[in-house]
Amino acid sequence: MNKLRxxxxxxxxxxxxxxxxxxxxxxxxxxxCNKAISGEPCKGxxxxxxxxxxxxxxxxxxxxxxxxxxxxSPNKYITFVGGEPLDxxxxxxxxxxxxxxxDYHIIVFTHFKLDTFQGISExxxxxxxxxxxxxxxxxxxxxxxxxxxxTAFNNSIGSGNQIVWDIHTWxxxxxx
Length: 176
Fold this sequence. Notes:
about 25% helix
């Protein structure tokens, strides 16, 4: 499938991670989570409405999504969450390539660990165009945020076991 299934878009979210623009980012929620549908959702997942890949408000090509983002996003900071964004990794990588060509800062959340990307060409392709990957299953036992720490990352990461990867640094270390 060469289309993205989008459940919702928050054009001016303060929960999608940091930005120099008062931590405002566009936050795009992608439909579907194969892990949850197979009966093994992340422990305490609260986005159950996003598990069903057939429950979406828009099904668009990467170019159509790019054009909407260019038109409505208040800045060049975007975060992709789910469901599970990597269940749509092909069209997501295409969209991120278009966005990166226009200098967007891109964050992707996934339950897949970064060390599982090697040898999977579509996942490796995605890494060429994103800035930050936040990996790891949501675990309710390690739920964040800590209300005493008010930072954009603390407000966006679901649980303390998730790892924030600076993909530029990671890519450079892999090719050194």
